[in-house]
Amino acid sequence: MCLEQSPNSYAFSVGNVDRIFEEYKAKEDASREQTASLFKHLLVFFNVGDRSWAISQNLLVGGKDVNGKDMTSLMTYAVLDAYKETNYPQPILSVKLHKETPQKLYEELGEFFFSPGKLTPSFFNDESIFPILKHAGVAEEDLENYAVAGCQEPLIMGKDNGNTTNSWLNLGKDLELTLNDGYSLISGQKIGLGYTELGLDDSKPETVLENLRSAFYKQLTHFIDRMVLAANGCSCALANLRVPFLSASMGGIETGVDIRDKYKQGSRYNGSGCLIHGLSVVADSFIAVDDLLDKRPKDAGLLFAALKDNFKGYEDLRQFLLSAVKFGNNVTRVDKEASVIANKVSDMVSGKKNYLGNPFRPDWSTPSTHLLYGYWVGATPDGRLAREMLNYGVDPLYGEANSGLGFRILSTQKLPFEKMTGGYASHFGINPNYFPEKTMEEKGYAFYRKIIAPLFFAESGKVNPFYLYVNVTTPDILRKVKEDPKKICSEWSLYYAYSWYFCEFPGFVTSYSERYHFEIGS
Fold first, then answer.
1. Which of 394, 404, 422 is nearest to 503 (CA)?
2. Which helix (H) or strand (E) holds 361?
3. What is this structure's pTM?
4. 3-class SS at 57?
5. Please, is 33 exposed, middle or buried when counting C-beta atoms within 10 Å of its C-beta (0-12, 13-18, 19+)?
């Protein structure tokens, strides 16, 4: 499978390895220690040469079956042991959780959370993913076997040609072009629809701002249509490179069709993913513009000049825009705005068809691309400067969720996760001092009570958040690690700790991230 995907063999998931190997373990009646020892050999095969080729490959444990029965087994704990002892950051370890996940599993995860330099798993919420996939057309019997492509895109591995990163969408750039008559503030070129094409009267700045939302979505419609043409064109071009062995393991034996065929569907499920960037930046910008029109309408014209000059000479205006309420603080006004944007954009994307007539899958993930895309976006009305990063996944822009993690969770829960059929990304940077429990086991279960339960299982009758990645650390801990990385963890683990913390504390680890960016990838 990987050879045929060369040069990019990423995004293959073994699936639930504990379920796959449990029957073999049972036949030999192997102990937990023996099983972990054997499983470490499999992890070694994912890490060959002087760099890991397993980036974005995912192994999963835990979860439930379609009847609600917990699927945790001795093999689950043996896999955790193997990861603890090897501490390879790749392949990614993900843990499926549900309301009946045993307390023991959370206790065993404590060492991952609270040991500096340890790999931290990603978490998925079966209670939400099952109904999301079912609504997207996945058969009941396949739900429990969902796997993860890359970091967080759920699909049915072995039956799903997901094309998970087939297209990319930059909401921040769309906003920039809408505000600036279709011109890019970075290149100076006209690449979008102008005021006249958007139905705006460019002679009055306040008119442009008053109609900003409708113009934004009209601009977005224009670019989504172009994006779909490009994505489908790439998929059809790729169809010239057939993959018979991969197809055989993805349903080709039954259908006789290559999974890249552009006329017939070779796998049971088929879609095209669309990575969507800049949710909270746009939501915060809309609210800031509203405040400007309401409280300082005479300064409406200044905003356009300030954006073009990257707020140079307009610090008072920028401070006013920065003071507007921001997503992530449980403020209904801006949280509702983010939800409306996520709803509309998800519907716009899922309403488009790929080359085989299947819906595109809205994927609110940003695998480090919020840095790249932010670099090509000019200043925005929320007070963000040109070329600064966009927000990560569905999270607030760094530094804006200043009311505490509890309020941030409440904001997050208001988003329409049922429409994020392609997945989404979210990261919590957590201070370990909030966990005074004495043992790792006690800390692990406390993590469930304080973080997982409020986020994943708090509200009944709705689709709750279904993905989370965490780092339990502080800047002080990272400074100590940076002084002597080999003493605490491997360089690989250190790189991942720093790259994730870069989202929370930009500038603090810039030199380290730049040093390893091209050598390792991000």
1. 394
2. strand 360-364
3. 0.91
4. coil
5. exposed
